[in-house]
Design goal:
Elements: E1 12-16, H1 20-26, H2 31-52, E2 56-63, H3 71-94, E3 97-102, H4 110-123, E4 129-137, H5 139-155, H6 166-170, E5 183-186, E6 205-208, H7 218-229
Parallel strand pairs: 1-2, 1-5, 2-4, 3-4, 5-6
Bound molecules: 3-methylbut-3-enyl trihydrogen diphosphate (2 copies) and magnesium ion.
Length: 244
């Protein structure tokens, strides 16, 4: 008998795609080349997730703190997002992928906003895989926005403070209808969350790999799934004695 805590394939994998800059620097190339190579790795990861049976894939593409980077680099990252949606949305749609965007829409240029809305609208009924792009995303910002929504409901009498539960808070986050990530992968050897899915990752398995994001391929993805399969998830409880 399998224990309730033995995990097979994670339903939801979230990835902190880190190390584009270092990948470029090691090749004496400008950082922008690293970001371009990062988009190629992103496409490989979306396909690999589908082939490996991962239903939800979240990719951290631009953080609310990345605004502190030089303007030229920010413009590059926005240009790559535009290009990705313009060039690859049709293919994602053809593969029955539902696209969701999480993060703040504040400060986003209006053409980027329209592309994001279009991507979500076109693919909303697809059900082979859900690709969640975290763009202009930061957990603290997301939680602040959720708290403001809840406070407004308390203010206008729609809710009373006693009705605030963890589920209610979850339902006011950008990820409202998305299951919590079972595993969070971070590439590049850094071992931190950098303000990514901090509420949702309460019981996620954290996997840190040394390879830089542009080097992350299907084999690397598959190795992370093997690592996940060897973890014991307990959610604060006890592992059942299987008697073996
Ligand atoms: C990740 O790579 C991409 C973004 C944060 C947008 P980095 O640009 O952070 O690469 P490193 O960490 O400088 O190598
Ligand atoms: C996290 O990487 C954000 C993304 C991958 C989009 P960073 O490179 O911005 O994180 P820090 O600054 O090393 O914590
Ligand atoms: Mg980085």
């Amino acid at each position: 008998m399998e224990s309730d805590f033995i995990c097979a394939t994670p339903r939801h994998v979230a990835i902190i795609m880190d190390g584009n800059g270092r990948w470029a620097q090691r090749r004496m190339l400008p950082r922008s080349h690293g970001h371009k190579a990062g988009v190629d790795a992103l496409k490989i990861a979306v396909r690999a997730a589908r082939e490996l049976g991962v239903q939800y894939l979240t990719l951290f593409s631009f953080s609310s703190e990345n605004w502190s980077r030089p303007e030229g680099e920010i413009n590059e990252l926005f240009a790559l997002l535009r290009l990705f949606i313009r060039r690859d949305l049709a293919e994602l749609h053809k593969n029955n992928v539902r696209v969701r965007i999480i993060g703040s829409r504040y400060r986003l240029p209006s053409d980027v906003l329209s592309l994001l809305v279009e991507a979500e609208k076109l693919t909303r009924n697809n059900d082979a895989q859900t690709l969640i792009i975290a763009f202009n995303y930061g957990s603290r910002d997301e939680i602040v926005r959720a708290v403001k929504l809840i406070a407004a409901k308390v203010d206008n009498g729609e809710l009373c403070a006693e009705e605030i539960t963890p589920e209610l808070i979850s339902n006011h986050l950008d990820t409202a209808d998305i299951p919590d990530p079972d595993m969070i992968i971070r590439t590049s050897g850094e071992k931190r969350l950098s303000n990514f899915l901090m509420w949702q990752s309460a019981y996620s398995e954290l996997v840190f790999v040394d390879c830089l994001w542009p080097e992350f391929d299907k084999t690397a993805f598959s190795q992370c799934l093997d690592e996940y399969a060897n973890r014991t998830r307990k959610f604060g409880g006890l592992v059942k004695d299987t008697g073996s």
